[in-house]
């Protein structure tokens, strides 16, 4: 019986020794602190870095601190039995510290074990990432401001009164529109919708704007203008998932003739005349790398004094409410019957009330009223 007892005792001793070996083999620092704040155990890794004499010293003294921490998780752990965590800076290194209770055979807490894990590299990477993100956000904010600054000015162009709503879903938008004088008799106007959002889409809007401004100097017809625009885009050699739609027209402000073509834009502009609503429907190819050559059919309409043209992007008709319903073209056409003075404000309020969520597509609305 005695021999068996010794064997059992040897096993216990081996198990205890194994526990210490495991702790000493850890790369994390491990120490045990009693109720008085005295270190009663420290593993090999911790003693090698902070000194063999830390056992028996006060917990704060071992970390070269003059006094107790303002928030001591170990005291709380011993008092409440909670497992707590915090971060500690020691000799320019950042440690994640976890404090857990140590109990005796009766379940009473008499100490706490602290495990220090060096997270300096992780935190430095996080700080660098935060800095880079802040820099990126700053650059995106600047790009957005620039994108907004290059929008046309609201006001009068010849005998046309221009107003618009520009509502990007993200920092940068894939929607773009412009209006410009071609010569004394003609004004060009377009609205464009680039597939996708963000930086790549916004860069393509810059291409569209610059190209259309260059094209206007050639005084090309709408058909010729889009053929030239398509050729220039194909020459960029972008991936075939990069493309955009555009609706472009020229208004002769002397004769009030609107000549237009559609480059795949699925949102037909709306003509409002005498409180009646009509879609200016036309078909055509989008501006994409998929087609080597394209052609477009021109359409003409005569405008009257008081007529209003509404150009828009699909972020409106494809907007979704809380019930999963789309805004749709019918709602948009019904809105066009509004006769109040705040036409654009009314449109924006109606769309915002319907959409609720900000996480939806870009949308833009451009209105053009014939004054005489």
A few lines on this structure:
The chain folds into two domains: about 15-120, Beta-Lactamase (2-Layer Sandwich), CATH 3.30.450; about 150-370, Phosphatase 2c, domain 1, CATH 3.60.40.10. The protein contains ten helices and 17 strands.
What is the topological layout?
Layout: H1 2-25, E1 29-34, E2 39-42, H2 44-50, H3 59-62, H4 73-80, E3 84-90, E4 93-103, E5 109-118, H5 120-149, E6 155-157, E7 160-167, E8 175-181, E9 186-194, H6 198-216, H7 222-234, E10 243-252, E11 257-263, E12 270-273, E13 276-279, E14 287-288, E15 299-302, E16 308-312, H8 314-317, H9 328-335, H10 343-355, E17 363-370
Antiparallel strand pairs: 1-2, 1-5, 3-4, 4-5, 6-7, 7-17, 8-9, 9-10, 10-11, 10-14, 11-15, 12-13, 12-16, 16-17
Helix pairs in contact: 6-7
What report would you give on this structure?
With 372 residues, the chain is α+β, with helices and mostly antiparallel strands. It folds into 2 domains: 13-118, PAS domain (Beta-Lactamase, 2-Layer Sandwich); 151-370, PPM-type phosphatase domain (Phosphatase 2c, domain 1), CATH 3.60.40.10. Helix content is 35%, strand content 29%. α6 crosses α7 (222-234). The model has no long low-confidence stretch (mean pLDDT 89).
